[in-house]
Design goal:
single chain, 67% helix, mainly alpha, 143 residues, 6 helices
Length: 143
């Protein structure tokens, strides 16, 4: 039985840490995209490196989840939809100064402009849900 509420506290801690580290600051994102402050870039590279090590350990030792199910890492295929989605995501990130994780931290800090970003993310998810059946029929993403 899945219990999604068990991830609420870790998510709140993650958001708090994003906020404390300054990753909910619009100026930090602008500086990153202008290459004047690479704090966020180096943090992401560090996170990617740690994730790579942990994923290889998961594949090697095959642990079980908190609910007792075996942890499986599935590789997702790359296709042109990946490129299109990445471009849309990057453009939205660059224009708004927030990604889906940091926008929630910004809302928690009371940054009103984050409401527009959150609304855009929600609209994008809704739009994708509407067009996904057609994309699937056309082979984007592979069925």
């Amino acid at each position: 039985m899945k219990r999604p509420y068990m991830f609420l506290l870790p998510g709140m801690i993650f958001g708090f840490l994003l906020s404390r580290a300054g990753f909910s600051d619009y100026d930090l994102f602008m500086d990153m995209f202008l290459f004047t402050n690479l704090k966020l870039v180096w943090t992401m590279f560090t996170a990617i490196g740690v994730a790579m090590v942990l994923m290889s350990l998961i594949r090697k030792f095959r642990p079980r989840s908190l609910t007792g199910e075996p942890v499986r890492i599935k590789t997702k295929p790359l296709h042109r939809g990946t490129l299109i989605g990445g471009v849309i995501f990057g453009a939205g990130w660059g224009m708004s100064g927030a990604c889906p994780g940091t926008v929630l931290a910004q809302l928690g800090e009371g940054k009103i402009l984050a409401l527009f970003t959150f609304t855009g993310i929600a609209f994008g998810v809704y739009l994708f849900a509407l067009v996904y059946p057609q994309l699937k029929k056309s082979g984007i993403p592979p069925a």
